[in-house]
Amino acid sequence: MNFESYLSYVAAFNSQDWKRVHTEFYTPDVVIDFPVARFDNAADSLTWFEKAHESIFETLIVRTFRTDGHTLVVDLDVHFILLADTPMSPKGPEGRAGDNFEVPMLAVYDIAPDGRIARLTVTFEA
Fold first, then answer.
1. Fold of 3-124
2. How far apart are the C-alpha atoms of 86 and 105, rounded to whole Å?
3. Which of 87, 88, 82, 74 is nearest to 125 (CA)?
């Protein structure tokens, strides 16, 4: 996955097109490891994303992008707007409607031979 392809992923993510993200950009057996959740396949991740984003609008802002051709390392600012009170806020169960904040994150993507994401590991940065 090159930078142009990654920006297509970011565009799908930022438009909240979770089905496209999970079918076009993730392998079916993708492993996703977030600070708040872990998934071992795209179907479980899709179910969680759809539920979480009933009350959260999330936008990825790319700060830096590095790749060796097999792995992407991306520094992100991730902007969250809480649309309703939610226990699924990255800041914890005290998330309230109207909360608006950014969380710096480091995302490491392992890319499968077909160019899709096979593993995604995200850490919150201080």
1. Nuclear Transport Factor 2; Chain: A, (3.10.450)
2. 21
3. 74
Q: Map residue 11 onto helix, strand or coil.
A: helix
- Which amino acid does the sequence have at 1? M
Domain boundaries along the sequence of the chain: 3-124
Instruction: Please report, as a single letter, which amino acid is at residue 93.
Output: P
* pLDDT of 126 above 80: no
pLDDT tens digits, 2-12: 999 999 999 99
C-alpha–C-alpha distance, residues 122 and 20, integer Å: 20
Cα dist from 97 to 55, 86, 100, whole Å: 8, 8, 9
Q: Is residue 13 classed as helix, strand or coil in its secondary structure?
A: helix
Q: How confident is the model at residue 52 (pLDDT cuts 50, 70, 90)?
A: very high
Q: How far is CA 17 from the centre of its chain?
A: 12
Rounded to whole angstroms, the Cα distance separating 112 from 118 reads 5
User: In angstroms, what CA-CA distances link 51 with 47, 57, 81, 87, 125?
Assistant: 6, 12, 15, 11, 25
